[in-house]
Amino acid sequence: xxxxxxxxxxxxxxxxxxxxxxxxxxxxxxxxxxxxxxxxxxxxxxxxxxxxxxxxxxxxxxxxxxxxxxxxxxxxxxxxxxxxxxxxxxxxxxxxxxxxxxxxxxxxxxxxxxxxxxxxxxxxxxxxxxxxxxxxxxxxxxxxxxxxxxxxxxxxxxxxxxxxxxxxxxxxxxxxxxxxxxxxxxxxxxxxxxxxxxxxxxxxxxxxxxxxxxxxxxxxxxxxxxxxxxxxxxxxxxxxxxxxxxxxxxxxxxxxxxxxxxxxxxxxxxxxxxxxxxxxxxxxxxxxxxxxxxxxxxxxxxxxxxxxxxxxxxxxxxxxxxxxxxxxxxxxxxxxxxxxxxxxxxxxxxxxxxxxxxxxxxxxxxxxxxxxxxxxxxxxxxxxxxxxxxxxxxxxxxxxxxxxxxxxxxxxxxxxxxxxxxxxxxxxxxxxxxxxxxxxxxxxxxxxxxxxxxxxxxxx
Length: 460
Description:
Elements: H1 11-20, E1 39-43, E2 46-49, E3 54-57, H2 60-64, H3 73-85, H4 96-107, E4 114-118, H5 121-139, E5 146-150, H6 159-163, H7 168-171, E6 181-184, H8 200-215, E7 220-225, H9 241-251, E8 255-259, E9 283-286, E10 298-302, H10 304-308, H11 332-346, H12 349-370, E11 374-379, E12 384-391, E13 396-397, H13 400-412, E14 415-416, E15 418-419, E16 430-433, H14 441-459
Parallel strand pairs: 3-14, 5-6, 5-7, 7-8, 8-9
Antiparallel strand pairs: 1-2, 2-3, 4-10, 9-10, 11-12, 12-13, 12-16, 15-16
């Protein structure tokens, strides 16, 4: 750490935090008697807190964001240079970094053609919901306005996004929600809703079609899905799932919205998670890793066919997408995103993600051989999870307090990992790992070794 960041120098900072900062996802009562954690510095995959403690960050900033690691001076320089030239202009006009990043982004997304900028993943998803609703009114006589979402998926924290949340604990106490959002069953084979069945992926897709037929295909406009479910338990889709989902949607003329807020920008070992599965989406949303947290940016991308629906009648003042995102006009986001993308390409980070992801999965499977508490290991690239159970035979979930004790033990030993949190009552039992795409074999091995020791201390 920098000498200016010694503990004594930061006592006032800690007290100011305790007195005035309202932390995300946090119960603040303990902070009346213990210090809140204040992060001070980061470099590579390491961060230091205000006490001077060093941690290996295995969750990329706590929420799957810092894909290229901390301390990237080239991104900071790109942002600084852009800000002194032009920091902002509303998205009703263009900017140099927004135009150039949209061009580079679309090169990575065959079939997509348009980029709408906003401020966060929640907002990017809200844009899709509004687009679908406007398409329904303008082109379907008000029909096809319903939006399907999947159990265990999560799409953001606004009221509209929570209406499409498949995580009850995220939704609780925030209703009533807007109408027209309809859940479909999840696709986690480990917790099959239909017992032991062959071709589980196809069976899970059939369950989606059953909902469509129940609601009426002429009432359903879109389906919103994560390519790999994130906070709902790191759920990779079973074989045959995506192929059949896409076929069902095309037959019923339902638009496909892929939420890549977590999975995008290399996290799964491809530029985007959906690209592993041959899906051709109509909308793709992204945020977190787009600029690795160096600036706020989110993108809603669409096909040209979708875009064309909003310019069919130039004489009608209600025909275009009448939306604005104030901070979608900030130039720092696309400037950072351009340099972030260059780093991923030039340093071969997608290839590294594939290799280190295989190493991490092998390590987790090794832990499962030693610790009966691990019931299932899942993941894609550097996006992995281990579901903890009290009994492998019955698959009874491990007690949440003990899962969190594993997380706390790892933190105490200098490695930050995550776990499903306030998502599904009784099923917040999956350890979540998403180290930066720059991870080395030594980093991966330390993460696995620290979890190994923590499981031993917590579960015996």
